[in-house]
Specification:
Layout (H helix, E strand, L loop, with lengths): L2 H32 L2 H9 L13 H12 L6 E4 L6 E6 L15 E6 L5 E3 H4 L2 H9 L8 H23 L3 H7 L6 H15 L1 H15 L1 H5 L10 H8 L19 H9 L5 E9 L7 E8 L8 E7 L5 E5 L6 H14 L5 H28 L7 H19 L1 H14 L8 H23 L2 H27 L3 H6 L3 H23 L2 H5 L2 H4 L7 H22 L10 H25 L18 H23 L3 H28 L4 H26 L2
Helix pairs in contact: 1-5, 1-6, 1-14, 1-15, 2-5, 2-20, 6-9, 7-8, 8-14, 9-13, 14-15, 15-17, 15-18, 16-17, 16-18, 18-20, 24-25, 24-27, 26-27
């Protein structure tokens, strides 16, 4: 490989890795715990399980209870049976029968205990396991969270490929040359390469499957062209169990017992177990039972079976043999099983857990290599300050996640019973608030060595308290849960004991001599006098530039003054929003009605305010920029441009997802989003000139 190509791949790997490093660390850290989502939920409840086989559940009683409470006539139902506890989740679709029922347009999801038939809402059932699982996908961010995780996985794949290319010749040698007594940068580089290669197959699998699961909607967009834009037909082929049956009318025919079909389907094939069920058009003329299951791992890696019954005659309308593969259906299940370690039992998830933490270490070492390599005397103080700030922020966010997660486990155990139904809001508030406080503290401590040691020690102490607190609160001491075969609860306590011991051993291994090897110790930065030092450096740089300009004057005829560029961009945003709103008139030509329902001919005040905020303020800032150059004004402009930019990008992504056919609007929003990014960048540069 030529030196030029190597530098291109190296810089690409570095930039792509740094950009996604924090998000990627959160994905892998939360994903490691998400592997034990069900075990964490059971540990939190602390109750003994009865392990009732799903085929023996009294579905008829559940359906009768739901029918009395929600009137199921005209609804579609889905029951998820894959939970390891004594519960199933039930989802009710919107009401279809508008003649005999009051239309209910709200989709309902809740959990039902298969022994007591007690019903809980999603919020009442919410657990720390669910929280960490959703954090893995950034689902706490509405709409864009899952897509963001998908794009991070996509860029991670890019970083893996470029990383293998640049480290290919050093893979073997780095295993034998690793020496903790050499320079710190060399330690990080060798361990980053060696551990990165060890976890390479795992990381590659996660990058591919994570990208598909995160942005699968975008993957399927090209496929819609093969179906002439008929997405319903596409979904029917990709996920046949989700086929929609049009509502016709109600009937007085007697519905056959669902329990009978559940047992019959479960026993159709050896080692077959039900995982999901669908009921289409409840009490409708074309009511169907759709029962889905899988063969056990020892029989087949992928073995999805499905039988569709007529609910009145029991006649089989469709059958899929789990022993025969179907590319469209089974390929998706393949990706899901690889991603969630949903095969091979408990030990496979343990391996995934270890590899996930190895990947977290690879991410951290990549950041450390970056900040170590860019803290030299030859680099300007301004660049060094930027690099160290990036390092402090990144490590503060990532490393503080360990003690905050341990603290959250203690919280859910110590939470009073009266607050259990509010766990969702409490977890959100507590986790993100404490994480933010810890991040701010470590960021302004400006000592990566201290951050590393403090988070390891605090995480180890809090982690070892978890099984102790669990024993005190619930009497589920680790030796009792092992003796009573409560493996789920036992495994969580054991997991935290092993994690805490490992963290404490690493804490003891990190000596002050390691800090002495750091480039920050050899070339310290005087933070107290940094402003004065920056002014001196700026003056020196200005003097050298003036001296150079005298000898070799450079004139860029295409250069636009900073204020002029900012004014133009503000004007572009204002005009862009005006054009975007005018595109609403474009749709009038293709709609049946020109006036909204209940319209009075007078535009609501909220719409006037909306237009003033997005159109008027852009033009207002453009006007003031011509005359005002004060620092407070620049900061005000920067803050508003950032807020508007975030909204523009969000609106652009939302349009792609929900209004993919409105090409003209998407194009205009793309231009507006690009202008917002350029405006923020230029305002930031303008502020630095003061």
């Amino acid at each position: 490989m030529s030196k030029r190509n190597y530098n291109v791949f190296f810089n690409t790997h570095t930039v792509s890795g740094i950009v996604i490093s924090v998000a990627l660390y959160v994905i892998f850290f939360a994903g490691a715990f998400a592997l034990f989502k069900d075990e964490i939920s059971l540990w939190e409840e602390g109750k003994q399980l009865k392990h009732v086989e799903k085929k023996d559940v009294d579905f008829d009683k559940i359906l009768n209870n739901l029918d009395k409470k929600y009137n199921l006539t005209g609804r579609d139902l889905q029951m998820n049976l894959t939970f390891k506890n004594d519960e199933i989740s039930v989802s009710l679709d919107v009401q279809k029968d508008s003649i005999n029922n009051k239309i209910d347009l709200e989709r309902k999801t809740f959990f039902i205990n298969t022994n007591t038939f007690e019903q809980k809402t999603y919020e009442e059932q919410y657990s720390l396991g669910e929280f960490l699982y959703r954090l893995h996908y950034f689902r706490q961010l509405p709409v864009i969270g899952q897509y963001l995780s998908g794009f991070v996985s996509l860029f991670f794949l890019f970083a893996i490929v470029t990383g293998v290319i640049i480290h290919w010749k050093k893979i073997v040698s780095n295993f034998y040359q690793f020496n903790p007594k050499i320079t710190l940068k060399r330690i990080w580089t060798d361990s980053h390469t060696a551990l990165g290669i060890i976890g390479l197959p795992f990381q590659f699998i996660f990058a591919i499957t994570g990208a598909y699961l995160g942005i699968g909607v975008l993957v399927l967009l090209p496929a819609t062209f093969l179906y002439n834009g008929n997405q319903d037909k596409l979904i029917e082929n990709v996920r046949p169990e989700r086929k929609n049956y049009e509502w016709i009318t109600t009937t007085n025919k007697e519905i056959l017992s669902f329990n009978t079909f559940a047992k019959k389907t479960n026993d159709t094939w050896d080692e077959f177990h039900l995982t999901r069920t669908f009921i289409r058009n409840y009490k409708g003329n074309n009511m169907e039972y759709v029962l889905i299951g899988e063969l056990s791992d020892k029989e087949r890696y992928i073995g999805i079976g499905r039988i569709v019954y007529n609910a009145y005659t029991g006649k089989i309308k469709e059958i899929k043999d789990p022993n025969k593969l179907n590319y469209l259906e089974d390929s998706q299940r393949l990706l899901a099983r690889l991603h969630f370690a949903d095969f091979g039992g408990f030990w496979v998830r343990i391996i995934y857990f270890i590899l996930a933490f190895i990947t977290c270490f690879v991410i951290i070492t990549g950041v450390l290599i970056y900040i170590e390599a860019r803290n030299k005397k030859s680099i300007t103080l301004k660049q060094r300050l930027y690099t160290t700030k990036v390092g402090h922020i990144y490590l503060a966010i990532c490393l503080s996640l360990f003690p905050i997660t341990a603290l959250s486990f203690l919280l859910v155990k110590l939470l009073p019973e009266t607050y259990m139904n509010q766990r969702m809001n409490i977890l959100y508030t507590f986790f993100f608030t404490t994480w933010l406080i810890a991040t701010i503290y470590f960021r302004y401590k400006r000592d990566n060595y201290f951050t590393n040691k403090a988070t390891l020690l605090s995480g180890a102490i809090l982690g070892i308290l978890i099984p102790i607190v669990n024993g005190i609160v619930t009497n589920n001491w680790i030796w009792k849960t092992y003796k009573n075969n409560q493996i789920e609860i036992f495994s969580v306590d054991l997991l935290w004991i092993l994690l805490s011991i490992t963290a404490f051993l690493v804490y003891l291994k990190i000596k002050p001599s390691v800090k002495e090897q750091s480039a920050f110790t050899k070339h310290p930065i005087d933070y107290k006098n940094r402003k004065q030092l920056l002014l001196e450096e700026q003056s020196k740089s200005k003097f050298n530039n003036e001296k150079t300009s005298i000898t070799k004057p450079k004139i860029n005829k295409n250069e636009i003054p900073m204020k002029t560029k900012i004014v133009i961009l503000w004007l572009f945003l204002g005009i862009g929003w005006i054009v975007h709103h005018m595109y609403g008139l474009f749709n009038i030509y293709y709609n049946e009605t020109l006036i909204l329902e209940n319209a009075t001919g007078e535009a609501p005040l909220a719409h006037h305010i909306y237009r003033i905020v997005f159109e008027g303020l852009c033009l207002f800032f453009a006007l003031l920029t011509i005359e005002v150059s004060k620092k407070w004004f620049i900061w005000t402009s920067f803050i508003w441009a950032t807020i508007a930019g975030i909204y523009n990008i969000y609106h652009f992504i939302e349009a792609i997802i929900f209004e993919s056919s409105n090409i003209s609007e998407i194009f205009m929003l793309a231009l507006v989003s690009t202008a917002s990014i350029l405006l923020i960048r230029n305002l930031n540069s303008w502020e630095k000139e003061f």
